[in-house]
C-alpha cells in the first residue's frame, strides 16, 4: 500500500536547493519525502501526486471547523476585497475582542498578535513588567513557542535534564542565550512545585503552564492540581499564565480554563481562534493588562489585528459561540469514537498502546504503562515506533501529528472515524513489533 510520490519527490529535491533543509518549519522535517499539499477541504487533504488523506493534523490544530469552513472563506474573501493590511484600528477587532472576553472566563482585556510564539512572549514580558520580578517558572515538557527565552526543556535528553523532581533548564537549540531567570519544574507534582517556589520566594513573576499538556502527549492535570497551582501562585504573589494556544477554543468555548474550572491571570490563544488564519491573542485580567494599556509594558506588531485574520476570527468565534452545543458535542463525540476505536484496534493487533486525552485532542503512546503523567513518563514511551506508525498511516492515507497527537474537527464524520480505525489496525499490523 505505497503511495506514488513522484511529483512530491521532485518538488522536495528542488526545495532542498533553495529552502534550508527543504522545509519551512522544523516541525515539518520527516525521514522521507514531506507532505506536499495541493489543497485541503473539510477533514481531507490532497497532495500534489493526487493522494487523499484523512487529516488529523489540521494545520497543527487551527482547522477546528475543518479546512476551509464556508463562513470563514466568505468572510476572508469579502475582507480581502476591502483591504488586506491597515496597521490601524477597525470595527471588527473590537467586536472580536468583545466576543473573546465574553467567551473566555478570565479575559477582561485583550491584545492581538499574529502567531502563538509572539503572544506567549508578550505574556512573559507583561508578567515581569507587572510584578517587577525577574523569574518565570516553566514546566518540563511544555512548549511555548520557538523564541529564545522559552525554548528550554521541551523534550530534553534525560542525560542532561537533571533530577526528576528538580530538573535543570536544557536549551532547545544551538544559538540560544543562557536561561536567564528561568526556573524549570516537573508537571503534575505539587510537592516539587511548592518546594521550588519556596526556593525562589519573592522572585517568580509567573508560573506558566499548558493547562492540558498537548506538546508532550495529551496529558490532563491530576484532579485538583491546577487549583492548587492557582493557590500557590496567590500565596507567592506570582501570576498564573495559561498557554491555551492548543486548548483554547478546542476544549470548550472558554478554553481549558472553562473545561477545568481554573482561572489564570493571563492566557494566550492562537491556532483554533481564526479558522486557519494566523491570529493570536494575549488576554487577561484588566488590572494586569493595564500595564500594557498605560504603555509601561511594550506590545506592538505591524500585523496585529490584520483585518483578514480578524475577519476569519470573527466568523470562527461566532460559530463556536452561537453553535456551541453542536460544535463541542461533535468534537467530543468524534474524539471518543476515535479513541475507543484505536484502543480496540491496538488490542486486536496485540500492540501495547495507551490512548489518552480529552477527545478533541488526544495522544496515542506505545507503552504498557497505565498512564502518562509528565515528560519523564512520555520520554519512556517508544517514540521511534511512533515515528514508524506515522509513516505507515501516511502511506495508507491518514495524517496524524508525527509524535502521536490527533486533532479532531467538526468536519470529521462517523464514517471518516470508522475508516481511520480500520486503517490504523492495518498500519499497526504492518509494524515490526518486538
Ligand atoms: C502550547 C503552544 N504554545 C505556543 C505555540 C507557538 O505557536 P506558534 O507556532 O503559532 O508560534 C504552540 C505551537 O504549537 C503551542 O502548541
TrEMBL record:
<dbReference type="InterPro" id="IPR015422">
    <property type="entry name" value="PyrdxlP-dep_Trfase_small"/>
</dbReference>
<dbReference type="GO" id="GO:0030170">
    <property type="term" value="F:pyridoxal phosphate binding"/>
</dbReference>
<comment type="pathway">
    <text>Porphyrin-containing compound metabolism; protoporphyrin-IX biosynthesis; 5-aminolevulinate from L-glutamyl-tRNA(Glu): step 2/2.</text>
</comment>
<comment type="similarity">
    <text>Belongs to the class-III pyridoxal-phosphate-dependent aminotransferase family. HemL subfamily.</text>
</comment>
<keyword id="KW-0663">Pyridoxal phosphate</keyword>
<dbReference type="GO" id="GO:0006779">
    <property type="term" value="P:porphyrin-containing compound biosynthetic process"/>
</dbReference>
<keyword id="KW-0032">Aminotransferase</keyword>
<protein>
    <recommendedName>
        <fullName>glutamate-1-semialdehyde 2,1-aminomutase</fullName>
        <ecNumber>5.4.3.8</ecNumber>
    </recommendedName>
</protein>
<keyword id="KW-0627">Porphyrin biosynthesis</keyword>
<keyword id="KW-0808">Transferase</keyword>
<dbReference type="GO" id="GO:0042286">
    <property type="term" value="F:glutamate-1-semialdehyde 2,1-aminomutase activity"/>
</dbReference>
<dbReference type="InterPro" id="IPR049704">
    <property type="entry name" value="Aminotrans_3_PPA_site"/>
</dbReference>
<dbReference type="InterPro" id="IPR015421">
    <property type="entry name" value="PyrdxlP-dep_Trfase_major"/>
</dbReference>
<keyword id="KW-0413">Isomerase</keyword>
<dbReference type="GO" id="GO:0008483">
    <property type="term" value="F:transaminase activity"/>
</dbReference>
<dbReference type="Pfam" id="PF00202">
    <property type="entry name" value="Aminotran_3"/>
</dbReference>
<dbReference type="InterPro" id="IPR005814">
    <property type="entry name" value="Aminotrans_3"/>
</dbReference>
<dbReference type="InterPro" id="IPR015424">
    <property type="entry name" value="PyrdxlP-dep_Trfase"/>
</dbReference>
Amino acid at each position: 500500500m505505497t503511495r506514488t510520490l513522484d511529483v512530491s519527490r521532485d518538488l522536495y529535491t528542488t526545495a532542498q536547493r533553495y529552502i534550508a533543509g527543504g522545509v519551512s518549519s522544523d516541525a515539518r522535517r520527516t525521514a522521507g519525502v514531506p507532505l506536499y499539499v495541493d489543497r485541503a477541504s473539510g477533514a481531507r487533504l490532497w497532495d500534489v501526486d493526487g493522494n487523499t488523506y484523512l487529516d488529523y493534523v489540521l494545520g497543527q490544530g487551527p482547522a477546528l471547523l475543518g479546512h476551509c469552513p464556508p463562513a470563514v472563506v466568505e468572510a476572508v474573501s469579502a475582507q480581502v476585497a476591502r483591504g488586506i493590511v491597515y496597521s490601524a484600528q477597525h470595527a471588527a477587532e473590537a467586536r472580536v475582542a468583545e466576543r473573546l472576553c465574553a467567551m473566555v472566563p478570565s479575559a477582561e482585556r485583550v491584545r492581538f498578535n499574529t502567531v502563538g510564539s509572539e503572544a506567549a512572549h508578550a505574556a512573559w514580558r507583561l508578567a515581569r513588567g507587572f510584578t517587577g520580578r525577574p523569574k518565570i517558572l516553566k514546566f518540563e515538557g511544555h512548549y511555548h513557542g520557538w523564541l529564545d527565552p522559552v525554548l528550554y526543556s521541551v523534550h530534553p535528553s534525560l542525560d542532561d535534564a537533571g533530577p526528576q523532581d528538580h530538573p535543570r533548564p536544557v536549551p532547545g537549540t544551538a544559538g540560544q542565550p543562557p536561561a536567564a531567570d528561568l526556573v524549570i519544574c516537573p508537571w503534575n507534582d505539587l510537592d516539587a512545585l511548592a518546594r521550588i517556589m519556596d526556593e525562589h520566594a519573592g522572585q517568580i513573576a509567573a508560573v506558566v503552564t499548558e493547562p492540558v499538556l498537548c506538546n508532550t502527549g495529551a496529558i490532563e492535570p491530576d484532579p485538583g492540581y491546577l487549583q492548587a497551582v492557582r493557590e500557590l501562585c496567590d500565596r507567592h504573589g506570582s501570576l498564573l499564565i495559561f498557554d491555551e494556544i492548543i486548548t483554547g477554543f478546542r476544549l470548550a468555548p472558554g478554553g481549558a480554563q472553562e473545561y477545568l474550572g481554573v482561572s489564570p491571570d493571563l492566557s494566550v490563544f492562537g491556532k483554533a481562534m481564526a479558522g486557519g488564519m494566523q491570529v493570536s491573542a494575549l488576554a487577561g485580567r484588566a488590572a494586569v493588562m493595564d500595564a500594557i494599556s498605560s504603555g509601561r509594558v511594550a506590545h506592538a506588531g505591524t500585523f496585529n489585528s490584520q483585518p483578514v485574520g480578524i475577519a476569519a476570527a470573527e466568523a470562527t468565534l461566532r460559530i463556536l459561540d452561537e453553535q456551541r452545543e453542536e460544535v463541542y458535542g461533535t468534537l467530543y463525540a468524534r474524539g471518543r469514537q476515535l479513541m475507543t476505536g484505536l484502543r480496540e484496534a491496538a488490542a486486536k493487533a496485540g500492540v501495547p498502546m495507551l490512548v489518552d486525552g480529552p477527545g478533541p485532542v488526544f495522544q496515542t503512546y506505545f507503552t504498557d504503562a497505565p498512564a502518562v503523567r509528565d515528560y519523564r513518563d512520555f520520554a519512556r514511551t517508544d517514540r521511534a515506533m511512533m515515528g514508524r506508525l506515522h509513516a505507515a498511516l501516511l502511506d495508507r492515507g491518514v495524517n496524524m501529528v508525527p509524535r502521536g497527537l490527533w486533532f479532531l474537527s467538526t468536519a470529521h464524520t462517523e464514517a471518516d472515524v470508522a475508516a481511520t480505525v480500520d486503517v490504523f489496525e492495518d498500519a499497526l499490523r504492518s509494524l515490526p513489533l518486538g
